[in-house]
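Contributing new records

If you add data, match the layout below exactly. Sequence lines come first and carry their own label; structure lines follow with theirs. Keep one chain per record. Anything else will be rejected by the validation script.
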Amino acid sequence: MNEKVISRRTFLKRAGLTMVALSGICIPVGSAAADSIEQPVPYSTGTERPRIKVPPNATDCHHHIYDSRFPIDAKSALRHPDATVADYRLLQKRLGTTRNVIVQPSTYGVDNSGLIESLDQFGLETTRGIAVVNTSVTESELENLNAAGVRGIRFNLSQPGGATNMDMVLPLSERIKALGWHIQIVATADQILAGSDVWRRVTCPVVFDHLGHVPSVYHPAFDVIVMLLQQGNTWVKLSGAYILSKVGPPTYDDRADIAKSYIKVAPDKMLWGSDWPHPTSKPGNKPNDAILLDLLADWIPDEATIHRILVDNPAKLYGFS
């Protein structure tokens, strides 16, 4: 008898419904009870939902899609198992986000065909993309990427021998200005410091991934990013707290001062991203995406600023209507 009751409740739970004890009333998906249902997601630790109740149109501004059907760049160093559009939709269901920005992984170099297919699957109403190109890209290719939903190009400077390098930043940034795009930088703190003159000369918006990869507020690269934020042409992603943290979950306290300082200087230039499927983390050590989202509640004292970071700022930068 007990086994039958348990199996019936399990069935109702999996069907998205929760039975109120002895009442015969079903609570639909979207209710508080339905929201408590756990959601397992590939490449993400845990199944619980975040404490934060995200606002409508909340945006994950940084995630990747991996698909072995597309050719791998022979020079790429980072190879991740397939992490598909369907897998990512499970993360959206868990976190409550509805808009997303797909970042071309270094794995595929300048072959953006997988990115374009993923953008098509999600649709332009909710999704934008960040491509990787080099100086051989044609105007026609840029226009096709723009039509597909691309709104920026990424320079992964942290991987030697990758598809892009520092010499490409200025010429490519000038070419994408007319499209209203921005450049996105993933680099070490020392590389950001060394390139400070270049960042000042870029005339399109500049976005630094993963808190700028600065180890602390005392690293001189932190001062470079703060200076750029004050000038108004720079954005920072409050993502990747787990990457350089020595404290680790659930607090990632050694990353809090950096994030809070950026937010204080320029709350209108902050973005949030999951970095799913966390390609730099080993398979058995993936972070908990609910905890990563909940860090915003620890870093930000008011709901209005959280709304700005999750909804308003992405809408402005990526052109969501």
